[in-house]
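Quick log. Single chain, no ligands specified.
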Amino acid sequence: MTFSPLARRVALFCVALCLILPLRLSAQEAPAASPEQTRATIIKSLNDFLSHNTDPTQHDRFWADDLVYTTSGGKVKTKPEIMKSLADAAKPGAPKVEARTTYTAEDVLVRIYGDTAALTFRLVALNTDGSTSTYRNSGTFLRRHGTWQVISWQSTKEPAQPIAK
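-> predicted structure:
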């Protein structure tokens, strides 16, 4: 059985379409989450990060590669600097810290602007000596390839509260 050149071209086109269309559809990103889902995702990411802040995997997931982090002391850090400090702390012979400060977030506000989100919150640090320190933090998250990561972070230490008389 022989097919005309036109029939062969139509058959070839149909085969190509059947092969390419599923690839094209799978390459499309999932629809954007609702604002409530996005807020929940960012807050969960923050709480997971604060709960496991010594885990390099958490830092790698939380911070974007192009992060600019300004500490409460005014020092500017990048993600590679943060990751190096974590790797150095894990090296054999590095001083081991038995007790660690624990962190929680209060007064959390997430504002969403498309693929960008602004986060502000009060960071509460429970220090190993039992004292508490507080900071006002703000961060900018960017959604890239379906993942939210921090591209900018600022921390400001709150003044110590005077003891009530």
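Helices lie at 5-27, 35-51, 56-62, 79-90.
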